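seq/struct pair 1
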Amino acid sequence: MAVAKPAQAPRVGFVSLGCPKALVDSERILTQLRSEGYAISPSYDGADLVVVNTCGFIDAAVEESLDAIGEALAENGKVIVTGCLGAKGSVVQDAHPQVLAVTGPHATEEVMRAVHAHLPKPHDPFSDLVPAAGIRLTPRHYAYLKISEGCNHRCSFCIIPAMRGDLVSRPVGEVMREAEALVASGVKELLVISQDTSAYGVDVKYRTGFWEGRPLRTRMKELCAALGSLRTPEGEQVWVRLHYVYPYPHVDEVIELMAEGGVLPYIDVPFQHASPRILKLMKRPASGESNLERIRAWRRICPELTIRSTFIAGFPGETAEEFQQLLDFIEESELDRVGCFAYSPVEGAAANALPDPLPQAEREARQARFMQLQSRISARRLKARVGSVQRVLIDAIEGNGAIARSAADAPEIDGVVRFSGVTKAGLGVGDWATVRITSATSHDLRGKLLRADEMQ
């Protein structure tokens, strides 16, 4: 008897824009698509329809998203839009009325309903099973782990709560099971993300959940400790890197965990400014804290700590003296990794109504001055690492050379460590290596690969 051939699966193209939180949304949609038997097309012309996951945080991101939607419509014609831009009223429909459907962020079910309506999936008993870790857009050796959605703060320059809602923490057992599945699939580094990682569990009053039959509180420190206990199939400790951490007092407990080796000594803290008046205008949740004192305290607890932060230059009403206060802050704090944005009005943000907005040219000039100063600070911090021995994780191979990252380097936003000799050593992407740092620039490091006998 002839065996029926499996039906050709409908093919969906996918464009993912925006931050790591949006990338996790994309991974969830892709996982659901594959679990239902849809194939993922790498090109427009091979797709039956295209899903575009957008960003809508600043004007440049809105423009990029609208351009991407237009390109998908021109190349394919059948487009479903999701993501933060979809939550901004009729912006998408006004620019591109031909789109099939529009949803907001973290809307996997809505996206799937739209896909079903425009591209029904035929029954196919031969469909492949989806891996336990789901479909990911990151390399095999690292993955983003989103622990919550939304935010309870109402920063005047930000519209994320209007698009993503208030804080909703994921159940701690669910987070840990996802982390375990990722590690079992080959992940060696977990990058913990949310809108406010420090607030994890606030909405559920830090209730006790369960993981592997044991009680575990829905709280930042307890979650970090549990994640830090995970081991790869080879028995190696998984790197756990924390992003979007607000400088609340209880973060000190996590810094202690870093000093003990429980998680990476790396923290991403969006300070945004140094002037008390500007921080108050921004409605920053930590504006009453002495951030310089907190940074000093953290470094006393964990001298190896790497601190990344972001700032806004040219906020409405920022005086020359307040901008200088910001420059003095970064000079004194000597943060390791820093990004600075010239203030950009975001449609719907309360800051747009503040008096005395600065001209765009002045905002950009202040950003440039800020980054020139930070470049010198970064070069000084990196030069101090010359001669040290670092364990690194390889992200890419170029001939006989490797592009890797140390504990101080998050993927795509921080610097890298370059070294040669990988061919003879038999190293590949996702492997660990040990190098001695030999030179530094203002952003990257170069090192020498060490043999086992050189590490004694």
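seq/struct pair 2
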Amino acid sequence: MKRILSRLFAFTLVAILGLTGCGGDGMGADGLSGNYRQDTMAVVETLRTAIELPADAPNLPEVRSQARQQINAFSARYRRSANAASLSSFATMQTAVNALAGHYSSYPNRPIPAKLKARLEQEFKQVEAALRRESA
């Protein structure tokens, strides 16, 4: 009887931890909350910071690394989501993310060209406008 109760207690504890998760702040291990709108805005702000940073900034490698992590986490979380994939903000965001990720992987030590910066800023504005339309 004691053995059965011990196993039942262990199983219940594992089930509770598995269903509720271990994070207490609502953020996943990837730094995203799971709320598409909030996550998109956070990634846009991170990418804007990375784009606007001068080429001789001392913290450029850390900012680029954080931007790449955010790109990977955002894409991994929302690419397979049917709800997010049907949104115009997601399609535009993926275009911007793919352009920046392509630059980072092809030219890791070169600054972002002005033409790409302008295109990304335009796409970020379109994403923000689409998010406002979609939330209304």
